[in-house]
Amino acid sequence: MSVTDFKKYAIIVAGGSGSRMQAAMPKQYLPIAGEPVLMHTIRKFADYDAAIDVVVVLPAHEIEAWQGLCAEHGFVLPHQIVAGGDTRFQSVQNGLAALFHADEGVVAVHDGVRPFVDAAILDSAYQMAHAEGSAVVAVSLKDSLRKVTGGKGGKSKAVDRSAFRLVQTPQCFRLPLLRRAYEQEEIPLFTDDASVVERFGHRIHLVEGNYRNIKLTTPEDLVLAEAFLRKLK
């Protein structure tokens, strides 16, 4: 695994509210194995390459709570904290602004509630982005897929699932490319970084993820997370 041949950055976006998790606190702060989810996520990047510059984007009103959790858990892995915006697009813009000192390198944008990304995925994504400009982690569909037309009660038709992929994070890009792409005006199409860069005119390259790299969104996901951690011990 080659981790030292170019500079790496990570923008970890952690703006969830916990509503779908049915939790009283933001989902990035929920504990798994006794530690907030976000700490597990940051540690994955530090374990892969201790020289990565990590920017964590949080809602402004949640920053103090995060700092308190870091003190409580003795969490001292280096990371810069930045206040997010009203949308994910604006939050990534704020994360990029925090890297004002950097001119070159590869930046990964990652969900703060994907704590099971592994070193192999990170290496594949960083290396592909370094070579090609972009690298988006994705997996094949397991289930059958149908296209629905006509709204509720409309017709449905089977489609070839091999033509589709489920997109995960990290999504990695050469830093200058992502900066320029995020200078575009925000539109509803921009649901992730790949859509922003694609709209800018750059080809999106996919790298293989894995099914364990889940985004913790619902209470059932926390059960899976605890099971994954037990298996890793």
UniProtKB/TrEMBL annotation:
<dbReference type="GO" id="GO:0050518">
    <property type="term" value="F:2-C-methyl-D-erythritol 4-phosphate cytidylyltransferase activity"/>
</dbReference>
<dbReference type="Pfam" id="PF01128">
    <property type="entry name" value="IspD"/>
</dbReference>
<feature type="site" description="Transition state stabilizer">
    <location>
        <position position="20"/>
    </location>
</feature>
<comment type="function">
    <text>Catalyzes the formation of 4-diphosphocytidyl-2-C-methyl-D-erythritol from CTP and 2-C-methyl-D-erythritol 4-phosphate (MEP).</text>
</comment>
<dbReference type="InterPro" id="IPR029044">
    <property type="entry name" value="Nucleotide-diphossugar_trans"/>
</dbReference>
<dbReference type="InterPro" id="IPR034683">
    <property type="entry name" value="IspD/TarI"/>
</dbReference>
<feature type="site" description="Positions MEP for the nucleophilic attack">
    <location>
        <position position="161"/>
    </location>
</feature>
<protein>
    <recommendedName>
        <fullName>2-C-methyl-D-erythritol 4-phosphate cytidylyltransferase</fullName>
        <ecNumber>2.7.7.60</ecNumber>
    </recommendedName>
</protein>
<comment type="similarity">
    <text>Belongs to the IspD/TarI cytidylyltransferase family. IspD subfamily.</text>
</comment>
<keyword id="KW-0414">Isoprene biosynthesis</keyword>
<dbReference type="InterPro" id="IPR050088">
    <property type="entry name" value="IspD/TarI_cytidylyltransf_bact"/>
</dbReference>
<dbReference type="InterPro" id="IPR001228">
    <property type="entry name" value="IspD"/>
</dbReference>
<feature type="site" description="Transition state stabilizer">
    <location>
        <position position="27"/>
    </location>
</feature>
<comment type="pathway">
    <text>Isoprenoid biosynthesis; isopentenyl diphosphate biosynthesis via DXP pathway; isopentenyl diphosphate from 1-deoxy-D-xylulose 5-phosphate: step 2/6.</text>
</comment>
<keyword id="KW-0548">Nucleotidyltransferase</keyword>
<keyword id="KW-0808">Transferase</keyword>
<feature type="site" description="Positions MEP for the nucleophilic attack">
    <location>
        <position position="215"/>
    </location>
</feature>
